[in-house]
Amino acid sequence: ETDPARRLLGVTGLLAVLAALALALLRRVSPTRTAPPSAATLAVLAVAVAVSVPLLAPVGVAQGWETWAWLAGGVAGSVPVVAGWRAGAPAAVALTVVSAVVGDILAADGWTYAALTAGIAVSLALVHLVPLQLWTLVEQARAGRDAAARLAAAQERLRFAADVHDLLGHHLTVIALQAELAARTAASDAAAAAGHAEHARSLAATALGEMRRVVHGYREVDLPAQLTAVAEVLRASGVRCTAEIGEGTALSVASAAARAATAREAGTNVLRHSRAGWCTIALVHTPDGTELTVVNDGAVPEAGRTDGHSSGLRGVTDRLAAAGGALDTRLDGGVFTLRATVAARS
Questions:
Q1: pLDDT of residue 305
Q2: Integer Cα distance of 346 and 323 in angstroms
Q3: Which of 113, 256, 281, 296 has CB 3.0 to 4.6 Å from 251, enough for a Cys bridge?
Q4: Which pLDDT value is given to residue 152?
């Protein structure tokens, strides 16, 4: 362009469009900005493009240049990246139509302007497609990695909460019962009260030791010892309890932990939700798997509990399911039966 005034106006219009387009692209594709450009950013781009028509379109026309068609093609090829294909494709078509009108007015050659704008737009759109797709995949991978980390942390918190509930729920229930018995018998039978207090102290020490092992992640489950301990606690609480522990193959850590949690929760329910006089605990190993059965009398249906599962048993059900097992409960004439089965592969 030989006219200095037109050169200055053209540069002004060109810089306005480039600045607005760069701002919109930065808002769309940036490690620190994942949201699409705002309506205000897109409005600034639209105004800059509109202003560039009178400023830039006449530049170079006398020398045979379709200046604004090239600029319109660059913007039309970038708008789908900035605003998305649903809004960007109609905008690109509109820019092509405007380019044809400008070309018809300035050079009586609207078809050349439209062809240049459309060709550049399609070329740029294809060039943008691969890096934009790669960028999207990178963003999705990063989001998936962050989500996996959050999920792992949540699962670990749930596992730890389940272990704390299994350990402390049972021990604290029995400790409270022993403390109550000690208080009741303190005046009439000091020896019996001392025995209950000593039992409560022993249970508190055991719970503390197990809790420390859970915190440090070194907890190993001795299932026969756990079943024997539950039976002894029930006997100490005045319930006639028998425990039949069959011999079988070694159990996995998850399977043994799930059965131990089931036994502790069953013992807690006997003390809290029944007036049991007797209770039987049986662990049977078969070729198909193992079955843990806890039966007690004196069970009373609780209001609002239609499925026979306390909140603790619901947690135990989830742990058994994770180990490949299932929990079944039944109440029949005051006799409550809890049966936990796990297949042999677990």
A1: 46
A2: 6
A3: 256
A4: 66
Q: Which residues of the chain have pLDDT under 50?
A: 218, 303-308, 346
Confidence (pTM): 0.42
308 vs 328: CA distance, rounded Å: 9
Does residue 325 sit in helix, strand or coil? strand
The whole-number pLDDT of residue 253 equals: 63
- Residues found in the chain: 346
Q: What pLDDT score was predicted for residue 114?
A: 93
67 near 9, Cβ under 8 Å? no
> How many angstroms separate the first and last alpha carbons of the chain?
83
Rounded Cα gap, residues 234 and 269, in angstroms: 11
Q: What amino acid is encoded at 264 in this protein?
A: R
> For residues 13 and 52, is the Cβ–Cβ distance under 8 A?
yes
Q: What angle do CA 33, 37, 41 make, to 5 degrees?
A: 125
Three-class SS of 166-222 = HHHHHHHHHHHHHHHHHHHHCCCCHHHHHHHHHHHHHHHHHHHHHHHHHHHCCCCCC
Q: How far apart are CA 277 and CA 297, in angstroms?
A: 6
According to DSSP, residue 120 is labeled H
**Strands 278-286 and 325-332, bridge-based pairing:** unpaired
| Per-position DSSP letters for 15-84, written without gaps between them | HHHHHHHHHHHHHHSBTTB-SPPPHHHHHHHHHHHHHHHHHHTTTTTTTT--HHHHHHHHHHHHHHHHH-
Rounded Cα gap, residues 1 and 50, in angstroms: 21
In this structure, how many other beta carbons lie within 10 angstroms of the beta carbon of residue 292? 25
Burial profile 125-151: b = 16 or more Cβ within 10 angstroms, e = fewer: beebeeeeeebeeeeeeeeeeeeeeee
In sequence order, the 6+-apart residues with CB closer than 8 A to the CB of 234 are 241, 267, 270, 271, 276, 279
Cα 187–chain centre separation: 55
